[in-house]
Each structure stands twice: as structure tokens, then as C-alpha cells.
Amino acid sequence: MDARERRKPGLWVVVPAFNEAGSIANVLRGLGAHAPRIVVVDDGSSDRTSEIALGMRAVVVRHSVNLGQGAALQTGIDFALARNASHICTFDADGQHDPESIETMLTTIVAFGADVALGSRFLAGTPQMPALRRFILRLAVRFTRFQTGLQLTDAHNGLRLFTRSAAERLRINQAGMAHASEILAAIARLRLRYVEVPTKVAYTDYSLAKGQRMANSVKILFDLVYAAWTR
Amino acid sequence: MIGSILLFAIIVFGMYVASHRLSGVQLLAAIVLLAAGITLVVWPNAATYIAIRLNVGRGADLVTYFAIVGGLFVTANFYFRFKRQEQQLVAVVRELAIRNARTR
Question: Could you report the predicted ipTM of this complex, rounded to two decimals?
């Protein structure tokens, strides 16, 4: 166990990745100093995502077919739990998150005795982002407040940190992108103590191209209605 | 002529369905459907008779309505089955992935 592992015993970072060969090396390099244990969940990529991640000394868990980001997250969480993680952080593979946020989230979750820390792009003022994206994200926040009663400032941030017991109780059934709302609904249902942590988000051309198509929000809404109906 | 062709088609379809293993509900639905199909081919006026009783007017309309409702049920059935199988696929792929975790 080296020095950084001693500082964060039991922290696992889960990085879901689908065709992220262009960014995964930089993301893992950035994470290196902040995360001693990283599992990259390669969601059936057709590019060299797995090979690159292996070369960066991450653990790679590979879906043999593409299942969606929600499924990839749950796989990573299952894996981390099996490796006795005490805390599990989810971190996007497109390079939009700042690895230093993990430190902040871990400190905050311990200090507040919370179960979940959620990254928020809007807590520390509005960041630079395209106007349409900001509008849709604001709508998503309204929807989340209405659906779950959680008073959040950001509804769909991929940066989250769970304690082990929170991660054990959470089950992501939405294989696709509706998992973000599903996680928040589960937080409300399980009455988990949550705290929002301001995080920087870097919108690069790459992350914007990889990010959600706005039309996809309609599909997410449909998935959620379906889930509510069949629950 | 068209009557005998339809009758033949319905009977062949019934035999095809019967050659597969069906649950109780499915078997019942298949029998009702086949009976209705045969009835309508043998007595085409039956639909009109029922339609008038139900204030629909035309037998063809009545058959169309039932076909639409039946189609919706079939679609929903396939959709839920698809969703269930998707969950099963996720479970299998996840188990395989975790078992084959790699490091260098």
C-alpha cells in the first residue's frame, strides 16, 4: 500500500467508458494522484478503450456487448463492492470532471456524515456552457424536484460519491441514460442523506460531442414514465 | 372461394400454434381467436349482427376495433418481454464482465 492508498483507504473510482479511446488516457492520468483504485467499465467499446485503460494500470471490466451507461455504472459498483470498497465514486470518462473534486467530496461526505455526495455544476455559479444545454439542465432540475422532492441544483451530474452502505442499497435498473434520474429517485426513496458539492465541469469540444443529444431527454423521460408504471 | 381459403389458412395457423407449448392463458386466447375467425368465415353476417347490437353499425368496423385492441395487447406483451430479456442480458453480461476483470 503506497502513501495515497493510505490516505484514502477503500475508495474505488468507477469510470464507465464507451468508445473513449480519445480521452481515457488523460482522464486516468488526471485521476492517478487522487484515486488509488480505479475500475474502468468498458461498455462494449469497438475502439482501444480497454487496452489504453489497462496500459494506465486501471482494472478493466468489459461488457461483451454495449448495454448503456446505467448498466456500466452498476457493474462498476458491483465490482467495487466485491473488492471491499468503503466509498465508491462515479467519474465520467470524457474528461469533463475535475479529479480534485473527489477529495472535496470525500471530505464533505465524512464531515457531514452523509451517504451520498453529488457533484453540482451550478452550486458555485453558472459555468460556461451552451445556452440550450443550460436550459435543458435547468428543466431537468425542475423535473427532479417535482419527481423526488430533492432540493438539488444539478440533476444530471456524472460525478457522485457513495458510501459503501448507500451503494449496497442502490440498484440501477435503467441500463440507458435515465439512470441519473433513477439514482436520485432512489436517494429520495431510501431516504439517503445527500450533500451537493460544487464541482468544475470542463466543456470541451470532445465532451460536448460525446455528451447527451438533447433529443435524448425525450427518451429519458419515456424510460422514467415506463419505470414508474411498472414499479 | 375466399371463404375456403381463409378457413384453410386459419386451420393451418391453429395447427402451427398448437404444435408449440402454450400456457393456459395463451391456449385459451388462441382457441377463442380461432373460434372467432372460423365463425366469421362461415357466417360472415355474424359480425354485422353483433355490430348492430353494439350500435357500431357495420361488422367490418367491429372487427377492425377488435383487431386494434388485440394488436395493442400483442405489442405490449412483446414490449414487456423485450424489457425483461434486456434485464436478463444485463445480468449475464455483468456477471461475465466481473469474472473476467483484467489488470496489467
Answer: 0.79
